Amino acid sequence: MDNSSRVGFSTTVIGRSLDLGRLAVLEPEIIELCGYSAAQWPSVRAQVERLGIPVGLHCPLPFEGFVPYFDITGPDPSRQEEAFALVRETLRAAHEVKAQYVVVHFPSVLRGPLAGNAAPESRREEALRSARRLSELSRQYGVAVLLENVGPNPYLYLGEHFTWLFGQVPELRMCLDFGHAHVLPGTEDVYRFAEQVAPFVVGLHVYNATRDGYRVGFHDAPLAEHNPEEGWMDLSTLLASVARRSSVPHLVFEYSEDCGQDAAAVRRGVEHWIATWRRLCREGI
Fold first, then answer.
1. DSSP type of residue 3
2. Minimal CA–CA distance to 59: which of 15, 104, 18, 97?
3. Which domain holds residue 32?
4. Is 111 inside a domain boundary?
5. What does the alpha-carbon distance between residue 31 and residue 7 come to, in Å, rounded to a whole number?
6. Which tens digits make up the pLDDT trace of 96-122?
7. Would you give the distance in Å from CA 247 to the centre of its chain?
8. Per-residue confidence (pLDDT) for residue 1, from 0 to 100
9. Could you tell me which residues come within 8 angstroms of residue 235 by beta carbon, excluding any fewer than 6 positions away?
10. Phi and psi dihedrals of 117, rounded to 5?
11. Structurally, how many domains does the chain consist of?
12. CATH (domain of 17)
């Protein structure tokens, strides 16, 4: 682990406010843009240029409303093409602002009947074809594409599945979302998952979550006093595990503005985890 990791915030921290100055006062080294519409994009783009702070983009952007599905690995061909259209639009926007990367959820979220009963090997081959398409789009637009682990998906969910995928498509790398790995039912625990994928991780999304309290699209700020014995993730262990195995250029806090937690506790928690991460970077632990 080296000392070049940028620490920053997602625009979820300010409720996707159009005033990026609210993030700038936190002195981020990178800002991850998320959730802006086409009408809002010119203002966001102008602020990015004025502030001069490096940015990443979270697909889809620009986009109006809520994405009901994002079937980037199928199995429905029409839905898959809709997902790739959103990726291309995000990459175009990223190219405009000289973004460091674009985060793309991967694989498709498949619940109930959508999961089907196909052979796991065939579904993973479909995912591999999607990953190769993303790699080509990354090359075409000149912007790194980071795959962010999501689920459930009964065919691609273990750490070993992702390590196989990155071995096949080495141009792609990962944005590891600890919370997604922690709350998914029926999978390996987040600590084992993080250990396996760590060599391919170049971005981290940091917040905290319990399996009982997690809500899709809503993230709790990572407080210093969160106790793993109460179901919270042990972020000290997770950050150290990744730091031992990879050099991570970007760590982004991705908690929700309306998390309902005490503002002072949130501030202390962020400061605590920044200091912890900086120590890991410095010591190479």
1. S
2. 104
3. 6-283
4. yes
5. 9
6. 999 999 999 999 998 765 556 666 778
7. 16
8. 39
9. 178, 206, 208, 222, 226, 273, 276
10. -135, 35
11. 1
12. 3.20.20.150
